[in-house]
Amino acid sequence: MTGPAPLILRGQRFDAARPAVMGIINRTPDSFYAPARHASVDSAIDRAAAMVAEGVCIVDVGGVRAGQEGEWVDAAEEIDRVRPLLTALRRELPELLTSLDTWRAEVADACSGLIDLVNDTWQGADPELLGVAARTGAGYVVSHTGGLPPRTDPVSVAYDGGVVADVLRVLADGASRAEAAGLAPSQILVDPTLDFGKTTLHSLALVAATGRIVDLGYPVLQAISRKDFVGETLDLPADERLEGTLAATAIAAWQGATVFRAHDVLATRRVLDMVASIRGDRPPVLSLRGR
Questions:
Q1: Is the dihedral of CA 260, 265, 269, 275 positive or negative?
Q2: Separation between Cα atoms, residue 10 and residue 96, nearest integer Å
Q3: Per the residue annotation, which of 227, 241, 269, 270 is the catalytic one?
Q4: Catalytic residue check, 83
Q5: Residues 82 and 61 sit within 8 Å (Cβ to Cβ)
Q6: Which residues fall within 8 angstroms of residue 125, CB to CB, at 6 or more apart?
Q7: H helix runs in the chain, sequence order
C-alpha cells in the first residue's frame, strides 16, 4: 500500500493528510469522564458547535455507559437519549458527520437517516447491526472485544498467540463480513478497541502495533482518550490523563491511524496535524521563518 486507507463518509474524505477527530458526546449520567456527559440536548448541541470550532470532523453520540458500572439501559431508553440529539445535530449542524455508539440494531434502525457511521463497540454482539448500517448507507466500525458480552469489564483476559494476532484476525474477519454485506472498504473502520476485553499491557501493545492494523487495508480508528490503560500506565485519574492520551495518539497517528475518538478535540486536532506535517503528508500553514 502507498499509504493508510481513506475513510469516506457522506462525501468527506479522511486520510494521512487529513486524519479525523471524532468528538465524544454522551447522553448518559454516568459515563466515566464527567465533562462528556450532557443531560440536555441544548447542552450537547452547544458542545458540538464548540467542537466544530476546535476542528472536529465526526461527533460520536452514545446513550449507554460502556462498562458494567451504572444502571442498565434498555433499547427504548437508549433511543430516547440519542435520537433527539441526532435529530437536532442534523438540523443545527447539517454538514457535521454523526456517529452512533451502540451495539443494538434496534437503536441504529430508529436513528436511520440521522447517522453517517455505526460505531459497534461490542464486536457484533447484535448480528443485525451490520445489516442496518448497510441498508441505510452508513459506515460501520468493526471492533474487537474478545467476545465479551456488552458492558462486561475484562477479568483474567488472555489470548492464545497474543493479543495483536487475535485483534488482526478478528478485525480482518469482521471487515470481510462488512464488505460482503455491501459496504465499501472506505466505509469500514477497524478498531482494536483498547481497554475492551484487554489488560493495560494488551492496549499498550496494540498502540505500538497500529501499523500492523493499518496494513489490513482499512481505515483505522483508535479510541485512546483518557482510557484506563493510560491511567494505569501513569497512575492517574481520568481528569489527569490528557498528556498520556496525546502521547499515544501521536504514536498511533505516525503509524497511519485515520480516526481518533477524543474528549479533547482541540489538543487532538493539533497533535494530528503536527504529526501529519512531520511525516510530510500535510504542508504547514505557514513557512516564513528564515526567508
A1: negative
A2: 10
A3: 227
A4: no
A5: yes
A6: 103, 149, 150
A7: 41-54, 75-92, 105-110, 129-136, 163-180, 200-208, 210-214, 228-234, 242-254, 265-279
Q: For residue 161, what is its C-alpha cell?
A: 498467540
CB count within 10 Å of CB 68 equals: 12
Q: Are 230 and 245 in contact (CB under 8 A)?
A: yes
Q: 1 falls in which pLDDT band (50, 70, 90)?
A: very low
pLDDT, position 2:
64
User: Looking at 83, 241, 261, 269, which residue is catalytic?
Assistant: 261
Over residues 200-224, mean pLDDT: 98
Query: Percent of the chain beyond pLDDT 90?
Result: 89
119: which 3 cell numbers?
460505531
Q: Which three cell numbers stand for residue 192?
A: 482494536
> Is 227 known to be catalytic?
yes
Query: Residue 143: which of 182, 197, 105 has the closest Cα?
Result: 197
- Please write the tens of the pLDDT for every residue from 64-107: 988 777 788 999 999 999 999 999 999 999 999 999 999 999 99
**Strands 117-119 and 97-101, sheet pairing:** parallel
186-197 pLDDT tens trace: 999 999 999 999
Amino acid present at 251 = I
Cell of 281: 503528508
Under DSSP, the state recorded for 6 is P
CA distance 141 to 78: 19
